[in-house]
From TrEMBL:
Keyword Cytoplasm found: yes
Location in or out of the cell: Cytoplasm
Molecular function per GO: aspartic-type endopeptidase activity; polyubiquitin modification-dependent protein binding
UniProt key word Hydrolase: yes
One Pfam family, short name: ubiquitin
Domain Ubiquitin-like positions: 1-76
Residues of the UBA domain: 369-412
Keywords for the protein's UniProt record, in alphabetical order: Aspartyl protease, Cytoplasm, Hydrolase, Protease
Residues spanning the membrane: none
Gene Ontology terms: biological process: proteolysis
One of the record's GO cellular component terms: cytoplasm
Stated family: Belongs to the DDI1 family.
Name this protein carries in UniProt: DNA damage-inducible protein 1
Length: 413
């Protein structure tokens, strides 16, 4: 059979041995491999020291099992370190970390118990990093001190004056914290999934023949595509810049325009789709509520699929392992972009024409000062008898210069 041996310096060795081999013979093999004398070897299996005369099979060692090897004190070394070397500093670290480490290693029962109660510290003691041992001892000391402080505070509250206002506040806070701790413990037992990260919903789609992983978000009013993604899909040539502007939402994103229709492939069926194009390099493609409604989609979390066209197509949501790691950081940016995009689309005309003044802004913010100034110029020129569309085009032609636009309109008129 084959067993794995981990040495104190975290070296991994694999040995082919007979199940009825004695521990002493195994140590002899390890002496050849590690140059550690047989007399200085201690072998541990499941936290218990293996004596030289015992057989591997009698100890319960099976194929592919792990055995720990630590170095015992060399012959001639003092069996026990002085008591002062095994003491601790005020911060919890060992006075003599090397002596402390050697003392624990020599006691197979102690290190076995340590593997049960604090495997991290036990592993550090079997290693060669004394700084790590000191750091862990300080952390454990701090944890014990904090626990003791909490117990002392609880004990002090039991004997506090019940008519003291400050004492009553502390008692109230202690009761509230106890309820929170109990609620947390109940959640760990009955609802451990609540502490796991929830992966957002992604599906495989094709946009204009280019495979993409689409972020499905029913909380976003509009379907959004980034400029780089639109360029990769060959759609940037269809960008209608009359819809560009600044969108205000959770964050702020620049709207580069709108692509009115392009084919997307979900499953084996093609569907028409429109997009807002945002200057959002951290968000690639978001399938929003407008297209979810248009194509009668339903998000089925029981079967973990997206159903499209009333159920004619079902595509599975991607598992976390199938989603690129950079996409997992997209969710925050996608939320900002979807919020911005949702507000931006609210200012477009119901008739489907371009937003007035070529600007889109968040409905919640009531429009920007530039839009108000532009609309004031439009109103003045319309009062002179010109059509609104002609006024808008003239102002855009002269970058909002009212006098030049008026001269152009009078000349053309």
């Amino acid at each position: 059979m084959r067993i794995t041996v981990m040495t104190a310096d975290e070296q991994i060795l694999t040995l082919d041995v007979d199940p009825h081999e004695s521990v002493e013979n195994v140590k002899a093999l390890l002496e050849v491999e590690t140059q550690v004398p047989l007399q200085q070897q201690q072998l541990l299996f499941n936290g218990r020291e293996m004596s030289n005369s015992e057989k591997l099979s009698a100890l319960g060692v099976k194929d592919e099992d792990l055995v720990m090897m630590v170095s015992a004190a060399p012959s001639g070394a003092p069996a026990n370190a002085p008591a002062k070397d095994l003491g601790f500093n005020p911060d919890g670290s060992a006075v003599n970390p090397a002596a402390f480490q050697q003392h624990i290693r020599q006691d197979s029962n102690l290190i076995g118990q340590l593997f049960q109660t604090d495997p991290e510290l036990a592993q550090a003691i079997l290693g060669n990093d004394l700084n790590k041992i000191q750091e862990l001892l300080r952390v454990r000391h701090q944890q014990r001190s904090e626990l003791q402080r909490q117990k002392d505070e609880e004990l002090a509250l039991l004997y506090a004056d019940p008519f003291d206002v400050e004492a009553q506040k502390k008692i109230e806070a202690a009761i509230r914290q106890k309820g929170i701790d109990e609620n947390w413990a109940a959640a760990l037992e009955y609802n451990p999934e609540g502490f796991a990260r929830v992966v957002m919903l992604y599906v495989d789609m094709e946009v204009n023949g280019v495979p993409l992983k689409a972020f499905v978000d029913s909380g976003a009013q509009s379907t959004i595509i980034s400029k780089s993604c639109a360029e990769r899909c060959g759609l940037l040539r269809l960008l209608d810049q009359r819809y560009k502007g600044i969108a205000h939402g959770v964050g702020q994103s620049e709207i580069l325009g709108r692509i009115h229709v392009a084919p997307i492939k979900i499953g084996n069926i093609f569907y028409p789709c429109s997009f807002l194009v945002l200057d959002a390099p951290n968000m690639e493609f978001l399938f929003g509520l407008d297209m979810l409604r248009k194509h009668q989609c339903s998000i089925d979390l029981k079967d973990n699929v997206l159903r499209v066209g009333g159920g004619e197509v079902s595509v599975p949501f991607l598992q976390e392992k199938d989603i690129p790691s950079r996409f997992l950081d997209e969710e925050r940016y996608a939320k900002e972009a979807s919020s911005s995009g949702a507000l931006a689309t609210g200012t477009a005309d119901r008739s489907g024409s371009a937003p007035k003044g070529g600007q889109s802004s968040g409905g919640a913010s009531g429009g920007t000062s530039q839009e108000s100034e532009f609309e004031a110029k439009v109103s003045k020129l319309v009062e002179l008898g010109f059509g609104r569309e002609a006024v808008v085009q003239a102002l855009k032609l002269f970058n909002g210069n009212e006098e030049q636009a008026a001269g152009f309109l009078f000349g053309g008129f």
